[in-house]
Write a structure and sequence with these properties.
By secondary structure, the protein is of the alpha/beta class. The chain has one domain: Aldolase class I (TIM Barrel, Alpha-Beta Barrel). 35% of the residues lie in helices and 21% in strands. The protein contains nine helices and nine strands. It starts with 8 loop residues before the first strand and ends with a strand.
Length: 250
Amino acid sequence: MSLNAETACRVFDVQRFSIHDGPGIRTTVFLAGCPLRCAFCQNPESFRPDAADLMTPRAIIAEVLKDRDYYAVSGGGLTVSGGDPLLHVAPVRALLEEARRNDLHTCVQTSGAVPEANLAAVLGLVDLFQLDLKHMDARRHRALTGASNERVLRAAAFLAERGAAVQFRMPLLPGVNDDDENLGALARFLAGLSVHALELVPYHRLYLDKYASLGLEPRLRDLQPPSAADRERVVDRLRRHGVAARIEPL
């Protein structure tokens, strides 16, 4: 199948047997491009679309289908990540349509910092959204990511109001977003959406070598992963606010 410039996907990685990117065993396809520049970004390759490979949706799904038997027994499927795959909506919509034709469960990981029209364009093709709420304070969110959280919060409300399946997540950054003020504001925001669950994704340092290889300077190079006490405190604080928090293993 020849490449169509409008629907060709810029793929910088395909990770098979993923177990932290949605339910079951999954294949995660990473697409280049992101509207944010998070200080803790785990995938700085996404900043460089020129370093990605152009692939047709059909070619990507052919690769994903190699592990179809594992999806069937585990409830897994395809996860589209980035960067933010919804920054360029035409290619990801074409990819999701191809996944739907092959009866694949679909998960999209998004920052939410994209136009609502982009969310609406894929709404009927996504079985699960994973959306990160990085910080509730607009000023601190901008310092952390390069943009205000206004569009992110609107995206969260947009999806919730339309009954989309959304797993809200928070990257757990010690000393950055784990204070009581932010956790309380986060819990109140989720309650306003009638959401009472949150996935906590602990910060780790495994991504730092990527920055070195790309000639980039990691802004949080001195930050350490959350300790067991940090994790327990945050889970307990959220529980007191009525939010059931589940934390990914380090």
